[in-house]
C-alpha cells in the first residue's frame, strides 16, 4: 500500500512537470466523468464511498499517459469497463499495451465488458471483491481443496 502511495505521488510530480499536458488530462478526465456510460454509472454506484470492501476508488483518474475508468490506488487495482469498440484488433493491441504499462507501474488490471456490468453486476462485484481481498480468496481456495480430499 505504501508503494502505491509513492507511485501516486511520483506520477503526480511527473504530471506537474508536464505542465499543460497534466491540465489536458484533468480536463479530459472531467469530461469523461460527465459523459459516463450506463455501465460506468452502475458500477460507480457500487464502488463510491468505500462501499466495496472499504476500498477507496477513483473514477476517470489520470495516470501517466492514460485515464483509468476506476482505480483503487491503495490496493493497486485498476478496473476498466470496455464497450464494443474494444473488440477491434487495433483497440485490443492498444489495450494490451496499456495493460503492460500499468503492470510496470505495479498495478493489477481487471477488464469487464459493458454488458457484463449491466447484466451480471453481482458477478462483476464478486470478482472485484475477490481481487480486493486476496487473503480471503486464498482461505476459500484452501477450504474448497480440503473439502475435495
Automatic annotation (TrEMBL):
<dbReference type="Pfam" id="PF04480">
    <property type="entry name" value="DUF559"/>
</dbReference>
<keyword id="KW-0378">Hydrolase</keyword>
<keyword id="KW-0255">Endonuclease</keyword>
<feature type="domain" description="DUF559">
    <location>
        <begin position="26"/>
        <end position="132"/>
    </location>
</feature>
<dbReference type="GO" id="GO:0004519">
    <property type="term" value="F:endonuclease activity"/>
</dbReference>
<dbReference type="InterPro" id="IPR011335">
    <property type="entry name" value="Restrct_endonuc-II-like"/>
</dbReference>
<protein>
    <submittedName>
        <fullName>Endonuclease domain-containing protein</fullName>
    </submittedName>
</protein>
<dbReference type="InterPro" id="IPR007569">
    <property type="entry name" value="DUF559"/>
</dbReference>
<dbReference type="InterPro" id="IPR047216">
    <property type="entry name" value="Endonuclease_DUF559_bact"/>
</dbReference>
<keyword id="KW-0540">Nuclease</keyword>
